[in-house]
Amino acid sequence: MTLIFDLQVIDRLFAKFAPADFTTLDRFEEILKQYWGYNIFRSIQRDIIESVYNGNDTLALMPTGGGKSITFQVPALALEGTCLVITPLIALMKDQVENLKKRDIRAVAVHSGLTRHEVDVALDNCAYGDVKFLYLSPERTTTELFRERLRKIKVSMVAVDESHCISQWGYDFRPSYLRIAELREIISEPVPFLALTATATPEVVEDIQQKLKFRNGKVFSMSFARENLVYLVRNVEDKPKHLLKITHGIPGSGIVYVRSRSKTREIAQMLQKEGISADFYHAGLTMEVRNAKQNDWQVGKTRVIVATNAFGMGIDKPDVRFVVHVDLPDSPEAYFQEAGRAGRDQKLAYAVLLFNNADSLKIEQRVESNFPPIEEIKRTYQALGSYLNVAIGAGKGETYDFNLMDFCSAYKLSSVRAYSSLKILEREGYLELTDELDNPSRIMFLAGKQDLYKFQVAHAELDGFIKAILRNFTGVFSQYVRIDEVYLARLAGITVDKVIENLKTLGRYKIISYIPKKRTPLLVLVEERLDDKNLRIEPSSYRLLRSRFEDRVKAMLSYANNQSKCRSQMLSEYFGQKDSYRCGKCDVCTSRNELDMSKYEFDMILDGLKRRLQAGPCSEEELIDAIKRNPDRVARVIKYLMDTGKIFHNEKGMLAWHHRKEGGFEVEE
Q: From CA 330, how far away is CA 239, in angstroms rounded?
C-alpha cells in the first residue's frame, strides 16, 4: 500500500491538536527579549500572559516588584488592537507611557490634566492609528466622550490596575471602579479583563471577580512570603537614635518613610549631620526636583531617601537593603507594599517598623481626623462650591485648578480634616481630586503642511522658529508633543521670553495649539453642585468605611504589638495564604531561637501544651507532667509563652491558654 501525505492536511491537523501555546510561547519570549531585553519570565508572569491571551478573565495578585506591567504589556503586543489600561495613579500612568515610547511602542494617556482637545486627539489616534496602549483613569471611563469613541476603537484587552479599589472591603475603595464592568457592553467584541493588585484579602479577591463580572475567571497569586526580607519591629522611645543605629548597622541603600513633609526634611538633615548621604522627598516638591532627588538615589549618589508615601510608585531599584517606617502606616496593605520595596534583587534586606506607645494614641487620632462628622463634610462641600464659584446645578464634568491650603485659609478649615472630607466626597462619587500634577508644556500643529508653508512665506520673522520646532520634535501634526521652552530657546538662539511670545503668536493664528506648563492639583466635579438637601452621604456607607478603616488600623497595631507569631507568617495569612510558614529570621522568630532548640522540637512541645490547656486550666507542674518530653525544655517553652502573652495565670492562679484574634490577624498558634 502506498501512503500519500498531504502536507497541508497534516499542518492543519497539527495546528488543531497541538497545545495552544506551542507557537505563542515563542512569540511571548520574542516580545520580552525584543522590548525588555529579558530571556525568561519571572514567577507566574507566563501563566497570567497565557491565560489572558487565551481569552480568560484573569486576576493576578503580585506583590510589589513582581513585574505586573509585563503581564498585560506582553499579551497586548501579541494581540491586534489597543489595550485599555485603567489606573488611578496619574504619575505612574505618565511614567509608563514614557517608558513604552522609549521602547518604540505607541502609548497615550487620558486623565484629568488634559484639555478636551488633547483627549480628542488621543482617542482619535487610538481609533484610527496604531496605538497599542491607552492609559486612562477610572473616572475618564465614565464620560460620554470616551464611551462614544470607545465604540470605534478595536480593543484587544482591558487591564485594571490597583483592582482592589473596586471593593468596599479594600483599603482604597473608589466608586468609579464599580462602572468599569459596563465597558463590556460597549466594546464591540468580547475581550479578556486582567485585574491586577499587589495586596488583596480573600474577601477582596472574591469581590474583584464579582464586580468586574468575570467569565471563565482564573486567579493567579504569587506567594506573599519574601524569603530574603527580614521583618523587624523595634519598640523604642528615641526613634531618631535607633534610625541612626540601623543606617550605621546595615550597609547599602535605604528608604525611610514618615507621615509629614516637614519630618522628611528634619530626619534627612539629622542623618546628614551624622555623615550619612541622605535627602528628602515629598509631593510638595516640583517634578524637576523630585526627579533629580530620585535619580541621585537610584544611581547611588544619595544613600538614604527620607520620604512620605508619595515616594515609591514606579521606582525600579533592586538593591534597596532596608526600608524603615518611623510612623505607623494605616494598614497592613500599605505597610506590605512599602516594605516590599526592599530586596527586590532577592538578596538579604530588612523591613523595620519603629514603634512605641505614643503611636497607639496617634493612630486613634488619625481615625477621627480621617472621618469628620457628616455635617462637617457637607459644610466643606458647600464651602468648596463657593470657593470654585460654581452655582447650584452647575459644574458637572468641569475641571478646576485647586489649592487645598488656599481653600482652607479662605474658609478657616483644618487642612487635614478638609482633605479627609474631600476624599470621602470622592468615595461617594461627587468629585475627583488629584495630587499635584506637573504637566509640561505641549504643542500640536493645527495647520496642514500647505497652509503652514503659506504662513511661513507670509511671516518670515517666524520661519526659522517654526523650522527649529519641525527639525527637533516629531509627531507634532498628529499628536500633542511635550516641549521645553528653555531647550527651544537654545535651539532657536533666542530668549525664553521670545520663545513663549512666538508660541502664543502661532496659537493666535491657529497654526498651533500651545498649552503652557502648569503645576497644580486638579479637582473635577463628577456631578453638578448640589444643595444640602440633595447631597447624600449615606450614614450606613460612612459607618462601613470608618469601620473597615478602624479594622485595618487595629490590624496594624496588632502587627506592631505582636510578640508571639512570625511576622512574615502574620502578613501572609492576613492576605489569605493559608500554607504560610515561620521565616526563622524576624524578631519574633529569633527570640524563639534563643530557646536553643530546633523548630521541630519547639513545635512538638507547643502543640502538646496547647492541646492540654485548651482542655482546661492547670498548674505549671501538671502542665510539665502532661508533656512527655524533657521537663527543662518544656519549662523553657512555657516561660517563653508566658513572656509573649500566649499563656497567662487566671483568677485562680492556674495557667490558661490565651485565645484571641487581633485586628484581622490570628494571633493564636
A: 19
CA distances from 347 to 97, 228, 311, 339 (A): 30, 6, 22, 14
Alpha carbon 576 to chain centroid distance? Answer: 20
Q: Work out the burial of residue 651: count CB atoms within 10 Å of its CB; fewer than 13 is exposed, 13-18 middle, 19 or more buried.
A: exposed
668 C-beta neighbours (distance < 10 Å), count: 15
DSSP run (H or E) holding 416: helix 415-427
Nearest Cα neighbor of 254 from 312, 306, 332 is 306
From 530, 546, 562, give the residue that closes a domain: 546
3-state helix, strand, coil in the chain (%, to 5): 50, 15, 35
Under the banding of pLDDT at 50, 70 and 90, the label for residue 1 is very low
- Residue 568 domain flag: no
Instruction: Say which amino acid occupies 432.
Output: E
Terminal-residue alpha carbon distance, the chain: 73
Examine the fold and report which residue of 180, 203, 221 is the final residue of a domain before the chain moves on. Answer: 221
In a shared domain, residues 286 and 386: no
Three-state secondary structure call for residue 19: coil
d(C-alpha 178, C-alpha 168), whole Å: 10
d(CA 245, CA 231): 16
Phi, psi of 492 (to 5 degrees): -90, -10
How far is Cα 99 from Cα 38, in angstroms, rounded to an integer? 16
- Give CB contacts under 8 A, 24+ apart, made by 656-661: 656/613, 656/617, 657/610, 657/613, 657/614
Distance CA 411, CA 315 (A): 38
pLDDT in tens, 173-212: 888 899 999 999 999 889 999 999 988 888 899 999 999 9
pLDDT band at 659 (very low <50, low <70, confident <90, very high): low
Residue 233 CB burial class (10 angstroms; 0-12, 13-18, ≥19): buried
Are 143 and 97 in a shared domain?
Answer: yes
Q: How many CB atoms lie within 10 A of CB 145?
A: 14
Same domain, 289 and 322: yes
Question: Are 408 and 497 part of one and the same domain?
Answer: no
Residues 338 and 399 in one domain: no
Residue 482 lies in a domain: yes
Q: How far apart are CA 329 and CA 338, in angstroms?
A: 9
| Count of domains observed in the chain | 5
* Neighbour-count burial of 614, counting CB atoms closer than 10 A to its CB (0-12 exposed, 13-18 middle, 19+ buried): exposed
**Rounded Cα gap, residues 188 and 174, in angstroms:** 26
In this structure, are residues 319 and 345 in contact, taking their beta carbons and an 8 Å threshold? Answer: yes
pTM (2 d.p.): 0.77
Q: In angstroms, what is the C-alpha Rg of the chain?
A: 29
What CA–CA distance (Å, rounded) separates 665 from 642? Answer: 20
Q: Which residue has the higher pLDDT, 21 or 10?
A: 21
Q: How far apart are CA 373 and CA 394, in angstroms?
A: 26
Show the domain range for 212.
18-221
Q: What is the CATH number of the domain that holds 253?
A: 3.40.50.300
- 540-561 confidence digits (pLDDT tens): 888 988 998 999 999 999 999 9
DSSP helix/strand/coil, 356: coil
In a domain, 12, yes or no: no
Task: For residue 356, give every residue at least 6 positions away whose Cβ sits within 8 Å of its Cβ, in sequence order, or none.
Answer: 235, 236, 237, 239
Q: Which CATH number do you get for residue 379?
A: 1.10.10.10
Within 195-280, residue ranges assigned H as helices are: 202-211, 239-249, 261-273
Closest CA to 73 of 43, 109, 54, 99: 99
CA distance 109 to 136: 6
Tally of CA atoms within 13 A in the half-sphere of 510 that contains its CB:
3
In a domain, 320, yes or no: yes
